[in-house]
Amino acid sequence: MLALFTLASALAVAAVFSKRSAGSIVAPTAASSINSGSVIPFNYVDLNWCHEGYTPITVYLSETQPTSLNATGGVTEYMASYGPYLIPNYGLAPLSGSQVPPQNLTMPDISAYTSGSALYLSVVETALAGTCPPGNQPAQYQFSTTSLTVA
Ligand SMILES: *[C@@H]1O[C@H](CO)[C@@H](O)[C@H](O)[C@H]1NC(C)=O
Ligand SMILES: *[C@@H]1O[C@H](CO)[C@@H](O)[C@H](O)[C@H]1NC(C)=O
After folding, report:
1. What residue stretch is flagged as signal peptide (predicted)?
2. Cβ(29)–Cβ(146) under 8 Å?
3. Which of 59, 70, 82, 122 for a ligand 1 pocket mutation test, highest count of atoms within 8 Å of Cβ?
4. Shortest-distance ligand to the CA of residue 126
5. Residue 77: nearest ligand to its CA?
6. Domain ranges, residue 33
7. How many domains does the chain have?
8. pTM here?
9. Nearest CA to ligand 1 atom 14
10. What is the 80 CA–ligand 1 centroid distance (Å)?
């Protein structure tokens, strides 16, 4: 009973500030303040549910909180996107020709949004086709979202 109550509370809080079914958006933190051209810290810890050497991610900034992804793992309504990036797992060196996630992201022109508006930063994590057990799975996608607040 207590466990159920705690879970329900946790979900209620999660719905307000951030949504997570993939990895963790460590930075920016929920409701971080942004302006046009702000350079904000970025740190995402992948879930890597298929235990791959490298995890592809794409980042989206959107006006509404995404509730689903399209067939190829994209957020359809967004004002800016970043990536794709490839996260090296298990201490592997970055794959040549790939971009590791940057330590910061630059916000686009958001002057159209009034102070106090919420915008949403989502990270889509992909498990490439053929990498999940038993080995012949199609590509899989999960995403995590956090809110940002227009200053
Ligand atoms: C899914 O969304 C992404 C990003 O908006 C887009 O690039 C891609 O073409 C879309 N895929 C489909 C199948 O519509
Ligand atoms: C943003 O991150 C890059 C590396 O990803 C770093 O070279 C640069 O100095 C950072 N800029 C700021 C303003 O933090």
Report:
1. 1-18
2. yes
3. 70
4. 1
5. 1
6. 2-150
7. 1
8. 0.87
9. 70
10. 14
Contacts of 44 (CB under 8 A, 6+ apart): 23, 24, 25, 26, 57, 59, 87, 101, 123, 144
**pLDDT band with cut points at 50, 70 and 90 for residue 136:** confident
- CA 12 from chain centre, in angstroms, equals 20
Q: Could you give the percent of the chain with pLDDT greater than 70?
A: 88
Atom index in ligand 1 nearest the CA of residue 58 equals 4
- pLDDT tens, position by position, 1-57: 444 445 444 444 433 456 778 999 999 999 999 999 999 999 999 999 999 999 999
Closest CA to 115 of 149, 64, 87: 149
Distance CA(91)–CA(32), nearest Å, equals 30
Ligand 2 atom nearest to 41, measured from its CA: 14
Per-residue confidence band for 85, with pLDDT thresholds at 50, 70 and 90: very high
Kindly list the protein residues whose Cβ atom lies closer than 6 A to any atom of ligand 2.
39, 102-104
Q: What is the pLDDT of residues 86-109, one digit of tens each?
A: 999 999 999 999 999 999 999 999
Q: Whose CA is nearest to atom 1 of ligand 1?
A: 74
3-state secondary structure of 14: helix
